[in-house]
Design goal:
With 747 residues, the protein is α/β, with parallel strands linked by helices. Helix content is 30%, strand content 17%. It is built from 25 helices and 29 strands. The chain has a 6-stranded mixed β-sheet with strand order 5-4-19-18-17-6. Strand 1 and strand 2 (18-23) form a beta hairpin. The chain is globular, with a radius of gyration of 26 Å. The N and C termini lie far apart (53 Å). The structure holds ligand MGD (2 copies) and molybdenum atom (MO). Molybdenum atom binds next to loops.
Length: 747
C-alpha cells in the first residue's frame, strides 16, 4: 500500500478479469486486464455500483409480513431493519416452522441465477449446501440458458447437452482450419461471448472471425438480426420461430436432388426411413419443399436451394444459437439441425457437422485439457422433487397438480417457503405479472442479495450479501485457462455479510452449524477446495501454483494446451460406430426416437416436425402485429450492476430496435419513447430505428429491473413483462422467452 492509501489488484468476474484500484475502503477505478485482447467495458461501472445507494445496508424484514404474515403486499417497500442476530433468529425460526409443519418438500431452493464468479462464495452452492444440511429442498433441473436442449439432445446424441457443448464440439481453431461453409442459425454473437460462467479471460471470438474471413470461409447468419454475427458475414434474414421450416426445406433439397449422404445415414443414424415420408409429404400431403417453407420463413426458394447445394459440396458446420431453444417448440430446431447434419454426412469430421451455442458464452470453442473447476460440496438432498427450472410460476400457482416432463408425469409440490440467493427471477422469468401472482402463494420468501433488486424488493426477509470485492475467493472456470486469486479489495459495505456467514448463522440456529461449516472459516475452505484443484492439475500434468504462491502472484495463466483435441465422442463414433456407439438406445444418432414417440406428446412427436409456435410472426394479429425477441444485453450481464447502470444518462428505459418501415408507419423516430405492449402487460422503451432487423420483429434486451408492482407500464423496459410463460413442450419444459407478439406505439 503506498502513501496515499491506494492499491491496484486484479480480480476476475463472469465478464473477465480486470484491475481494481482501491483507496482505503472504496473502489475508485477499474482498468483493463493486460493479456485480454478485447477487454469489456462492463467494469467501468463498478465503483459506482459497489458503493451505490441501492446496496442493501442491513437485514430487512417486511413489516406487514412480520405483523400478520401478509403475502399480498410483497413489493410494498415497507421494511424494518432489526440487528443481524434478531433477523437470523426470525429467519431460522421460520425455516424451522415450515419444515416441521409441512416438511422440507415445502421449501423451494432452486434459486436459479448467475450470482458472481468466485468459486467458494458461489451463492448457488452456498444455498444448496445449507438447505441440504437442514433436511433438503425442492430443486430445479436445467437452466434458462439451455433447459430445453438439456432435455431433448440426450435423446438424439446420447450425450449430456453440456458435455456436448463444452467438450465434444470443435474448437474455433479446428473450424478455422477445416470449415468452408459456416451456417449459423441465430448467429454467433461476439457481444454474448463477452461473458462465461465463472470467468473468461482472453476474449477471442471476434478475432477468430477475422481468421475465418481470411480463409475464405462462407459465413451465413440466419435469423432476424444482422448484428447477431460479426461484420462481414452474409445475412439471410429469417423469421423468428421458423428455423425448423427452413432446415426442413434444406433437407428436402438434399433428399430430392440426391445430395443426402445415405451411406452415412444407414451406418450412423436410425429412423431416417420414418422421417423421410414426412419430409417428402407422403404422410401429411405436404412436401417440405423450399416453396412450402418460403411463406413461413421469408426466405426465397432459390436461396434455400443454393445454400443446400453449397452445404452438400463443402465442409459445412451448422451452428445453432441457444436462443432458438428458448422458444416454444425449441426442441424442433435443435433436433432438426442434427438430422440436417446427419444428411450431410459430416458429423465427426473436423470442422463439419453441427455445434450448439458457439458465441453464447466465451468459453465455447476454446480447447483445453479439462482439469475442472472448484466447487463447494453440496451434500445430499433428501427431497427428491425437482422441477424444470423455468416452471417456477406454474409450480407456485398449481400445487398438487400434475404436469408432464420428458416422459414423466409429475406433481407440483406445495411450496410454503422460497429461498433465493444469487438470482433475480423478477428480471429473468417470463410474464412477470403472472410471476407476481405466483409470488403471492408462498408463506415466506427469503432473499440474499447485495442490491435492492426487483426480487429483493419483493421478499419478506432480505439479507445483505457481500459482492466479490468484499471477500477473498478463487476465480477459475473450467472453460478458461487462467486462475485467479481474488483478493478481498475492500471491507464489506455497510452491514453486508458473505452468503457463507449468513448460512452458517442460520445453520447454527438450526442445530447444524458444525455440519455446515465442518469447522472451517472461509480461508480454510478456500485452502481445502484449492487443494483439490492442485491435485487434479498434478494428475493431468498441469502445474498449478500453491495457494500462497497464487496469493502472491494474483493470477496465473495455466498451461492447458492439449496436444490433440480432446473431442472423443463423435470422432470415435465415426471411426468405429460398433465399437464406440453413442449412448442412445440404438447406439446411433436418433432421427426417429422410439422413446420420445412412446411419450405420446403431440407437441414433440417421434421425429422433428414443423410446429408453429402460438406466438410468432406467422400468427401476428392486429392487436399484436410485431414479434418480440429479447436477447441478452450487449453492454452488461443480465440485470447485474443495474442500479448504477440505470443512472447513466439515457440508459433507461432500455432501447428497443425496430425496423424502419415499422417505425415509419407508427410515426416513431430514433430516440422516441415508446410503449411496447400486449395482453400481458406494457413497458416503456426508447426506440432505435434500424434496417439491421427483419421487418415485423422488434428486439428489446433483458437486463432492466422491473419496476414496482401495480404499475400499468414498466418504466424501465424489462421485456419479461411481455413474454409468455409457457414450457417449450411437455418434453423440454424450457423457457419460451423468444416467442411473443407485441405492438409498439409512440408515447
Ligand atoms: N426474455 C428473456 N428472459 C430471459 C432470457 C432471455 O433470453 N429472454 N435469458 C434467460 C437466461 S439464459 C438467464 S441465464 C437468466 C439470467 O437471470 P439471472 O441469472 O437471474 O440474472 P442476474 O442479473 O445475473 O442475477 C444474479 C443476481 O445475483 C446477485 N449476486 C451477485 N453476486 C452475488 C452474491 O455473491 N451473493 C448473492 N446472494 N447474490 C449475488 C446479483 O446482484 C443479481 O441480482 O435470464 C433469463 N431470462
Ligand atoms: N453481454 C452479455 N453476454 C451474455 C449474457 C449477457 O447477459 N450479456 N448472458 C449469457 C447467457 S446467460 C446466455 S444463456 C447466452 C445466451 O446466448 P444466445 O442464446 O445466443 O443469446 P440471445 O442474445 O438470447 O440471442 C441471440 C440472438 O438470437 C436471435 N433469435 C431470437 N429468436 C430467434 C429465432 O427463432 N431464430 C433465429 N435464427 N434467431 C433468433 C436474436 O436476434 C438474438 O439477438 O448469452 C450469454 N452472454
Ligand atoms: Mo443463460
Amino acid at each position: 500500500m503506498d502513501g496515499n492509501n491506494r492499491q491496484r489488484r486484479v480480480t476476475s468476474s463472469h465478464w473477465g478479469a480486470f484491475e481494481v484500484e482501491t483507496e482505503g475502503d472504496r473502489i475508485i477505478a477499474t482498468y483493463p486486464f493486460g493479456p485480454d485482447p478485447s477487454p469489456p467495458a462492463i467494469p467501468a461501472i463498478l465503483p459506482a455500483a459497489v458503493h451505490h445507494p441501492s446496496r442493501i445496508a442491513r437485514p430487512a424484514i417486511r413489516r406487514a409480513w412480520l405483523a400478520t404474515r401478509d403475502r399480498a403486499g410483497r413489493g410494498d417497500g415497507d421494511y424494518v431493519t432489526p440487528p443481524w442476530d434478531e433477523a437470523l433468529d426470525i429467519a431460522a425460526a421460520e425455516l424451522d416452522r415450515i419444515r416441521k409443519t409441512h416438511g422440507n418438500g415445502a421449501i423451494y431452493g432452486g434459486s436459479y441465477g448467475w450470482a458472481s464468479a468466485g468459486r467458494f462464495h458461489h451463492a448457488q452452492g452456498q444455498v444448496h449446501r445449507f438447505l441440504n444440511m437442514i433436511g433438503g429442498y425442492v430443486a430445479s433441473f436445467g437452466s434458462y440458458s439451455t433447459g430445453c436442449a438439456q432435455s431433448i439432445m440426450p435423446h438424439v446424441f446420447g450425450e449430456n447437452f453440456l458435455t456436448l457443448t463444452y467438450e465434444v464440439q470443435d474448437s474455433y481453431a479446428t473450424i478455422a482450419e477445416h470449415t468452408q461453409t459456416l451456417v449459423m442459425f441465430g448467429g454467433i454473437n461476439p457481444k454474448n461471448s463477452m461473458v462465461s460462467m465463472g470467468g473468461i479471460t482472453e476474449h477471442q471470438t471476434g478475432g477468430w472471425f477475422d481468421r475465418f474471413a481470411e480463409t475464405g470461409m462462407t459465413r451465413v447468419n440466419i435469423g432476424p438480426q444482422r448484428t447477431d454475427a460479426p461484420e462481414g458475414c452474409d445475412w439471410l434474414p429469417c423469421r423468428p420461430g421458423s428455423d425448423t421450416a427452413l432446415m426442413l426445406a434444406l433437407a428436402y433439397v438434399l433428399e430430392t436432388e440426391g445430395l443426402a449422404d445415405h451411406a452415412f445415414l444407414d451406418r450412423y443414424s436410425t429412423g431416417y426411413d420414418r422421417f423421410r415420408p414426412y419430409l417428402l409429404g407422403d404422410t401429411d400431403g405436404t412436401p417440405k419443399s423450399p416453396e412450402w417453407a418460403a411463406p413461413l420463413t421469408g426466405v426465397s426458394p432459390e436461396k434455400v436451394r443454393a445454400l443446400a447445394r453449397r452445404m452438400a459440396t463443402t465442409r459445412t458446420l451448422i451452428t445453432v444459437a441457444w436462443s432458438l431453444q428458448r422458444a416454444e417448440h425449441g426442441e424442433q430446431p435443435y433436433w432438426m439441425s442434427a438430422v440436417l447434419a446427419a444428411m450431410l454426412g459430416q458429423i465427426g469430421l473436423p470442422g463439419g457437422g453441427v455445434g450448439y451455442g458457439y458465441g453464447a458464452i466465451g468459453g465455447i470453442g476454446k480447447d483445453f485439457k479439462p482439469i475442472g473447476g472448484m466447487t463447494l460440496p453440496q451434500g445430499d438432498n433428501r427431497v427428491s422433487d425437482v422441477i424444470p427450472v423455468a416452471r417456477v410460476a406454474d409450480m407456485l400457482l398449481n400445487p398438487g397438480q400434475p404436469y408432464d416432463f420428458n416422459g414423466e408425469r409429475r406433481i407440483y409440490p406445495d411450496i410454503r417457503l422460497v429461498y433465493w440467493a444469487g438470482g433475480n427471477p423478477f428480471h429473468h422469468h417470463q410474464d412477470l405479472n403472472r410471476l407476481h401472482r405466483a409470488w403471492e402463494q408462498p408463506e415466506t420468501i427469503i432473499v440474499n442479495e447485495p442490491w435492492w433488486t426487483a426480487t429483493a424488493q419483493r421478499a419478506d426477509i432480505v439479507f445483505p450479501a457481500t459482492t466479490p470485492y468484499e471477500r477473498e475467493d478463487i476465480g477459475r472456470s473450467p472453460l478458461d485457462d487462467y486462475l485467479f486469486h481474488m483478493p478481498q479489495l475492500i471491507p464489506p459495505v455497510d452491514q453486508a455479510r458473505d452468503d457463507y456467514a449468513i448460512f452458517a448463522g442460520l445453520a447454527d440456529r438450526l442445530g447444524v452449524g458444525e455440519t455446515f461449516t465442518e469447522g472451517r472459516d472461509p480461508a480454510q475452505w478456500i485452502a481445502h477446495l484449492y487443494q483439490g484443484l492442485q491435485d487434479r492439475g498434478a494428475a493431468a500434468g498441469v502445474a498449478v501454483p500453491s495457494l500462497s504462491e497464487l496469493r502472491a502472484m494474483n493470477w496465473v495463466k495455466l498451461d492447458l494446451a492439449a496436444e490433440e483435441q480432446p473431442k472423443p465422442v463423435l470422432r470415435r463414433f465415426r471411426a468405429d460406430p460398433d465399437g464406440a456407439p453413442l449412448k442412445t438406445p440404438s447406439g446411433k444418432i436418433e432421427i426417429f426416437s422410439d422413446r420420445i414417440d412412446s411419450f405420446g406428446y403431440e407437441d414433440c412427436p417421434g421425429h422433428p416436425v414443423w410446429l408453429p409456435p402460438k406466438e410468432w410472426p406467422g400468427a401476428a394479429t392486429a392487436e399484436a402485429p410485431l414479434h418480440l425477441v429479447s436477447p441478452q444485453p450487449g453492454d452488461k450481464l443480465h440485470s447485474q450492476l443495474e442500479a448504477a447502470l440505470a443512472d447513466v444518462e439515457g440508459a433507461r428505459p432500455e432501447t428497443v430496435l425496430i425496423h424502419e418501415k415499422d417505425a415509419k408507419s407508427r410515426g416513431i423516430a430514433t430516440g422516441d419513447l415508446v410503449r411496447v405492449f400486449n395482453g400481458r402487460g406494457a413497458v416503456r422503451a426508447r426506440a432505435k430505428v434500424t434496417s439491421d432487423i427483419l421487418q415485423g420483429v422488434v428486439a428489446l434486451p433483458t437486463g432492466a429491473w422491473v419496476g414496482g408492482p401495480g404499475q400499468n407500464m414498466d418504466m424501465n423496459g424489462n421485456p419479461n413483462v411481455l413474454t409468455r410463460d409457457v414450457g417449450t413442450s411437455r418434453l423440454g419444459q424450457g423457457t419460451s422467452a423468444h416467442s411473443a407478439l407485441v405492438e409498439v406505439e409512440k408515447l
